[in-house]
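> example.struct
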């Protein structure tokens, strides 16, 4: 039996109902993990012909995401209120959780084994401008405690976001949000890869390999 919904608690089923079965929309999934496990966007890619972008800060998760051959754009970066910057993340060696640097403890109240990694951050406006997107039908947000920082970073005068699906303290919430449309002046384009640069680093937005507009999909 083929799987239809991949989200943890069938959130995509509820979101699909909220969007009235909309087809050919656009999704931002921030905290995309490996592109499949608990994904809120995969249903819409497969069943509703959506396009979108997957944003995943952790390098190991992002490598697994690329192996899934999703049709969405993707970027190994995080979203922050103050940019340009590099965020400090705790990556737990057990692999269960990760998040921006703060205290995580196990059930016995002992510190978990982790290492620090440093991740480039951009505003969502910069990321969407790089792929020339002005309207988002669904913004799925699950970034292990960084949700408020992401929400504060959004300039609603420049981006129209019609609905949110966000996880707060382990609970998923779907809501509708109407924002005005404004012209996006920044438009970066290329045939295969888009690089967003600032004084600290550069990150690459990878176009989907199955995109018909891409002539050369061999990255070797």
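> example.seq
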């Amino acid at each position: 039996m083929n799987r239809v919904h991949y989200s943890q608690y069938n959130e995509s089923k509820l979101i699909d109902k909220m969007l009235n079965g909309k087809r050919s929309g656009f999704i931002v999934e921030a905290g995309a993990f490996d592109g499949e496990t608990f994904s809120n966007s995969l249903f819409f890619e497969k069943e509703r012909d959506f396009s979108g972008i997957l944003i995943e800060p952790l390098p190991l998760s992002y490598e697994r995401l690329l192996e899934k051959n999703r049709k969405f754009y993707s970027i190994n970066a995080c979203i922050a209120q103050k940019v340009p910057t590099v965020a400090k993340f705790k990556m737990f060696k057990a692999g269960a959780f990760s998040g921006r640097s703060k205290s995580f403890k196990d059930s016995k109240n002992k510190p978990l084994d982790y290492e620090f990694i440093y991740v480039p951050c951009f505003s969502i406006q910069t990321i969407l401008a790089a792929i020339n997107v002005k309207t988002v039908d669904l913004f799925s947000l699950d970034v292990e405690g960084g949700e408020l920082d992401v929400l504060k970073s959004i300039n609603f005068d420049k981006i129209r976001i019609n609905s949110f699906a966000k996880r707060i303290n382990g609970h998923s919430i779907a809501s509708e949000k109407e924002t005005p449309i404004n012209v996006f002046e920044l438009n970066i384009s290329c045939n295969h890869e888009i690089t967003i640069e600032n004084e600290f680093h550069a990150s690459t937005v990878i176009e989907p390999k199955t995109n018909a507009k891409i002539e050369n999909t061999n990255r070797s």
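> remarks
Confidence is low (pLDDT under 50) at residues 95-108, 168-201, 210-220.
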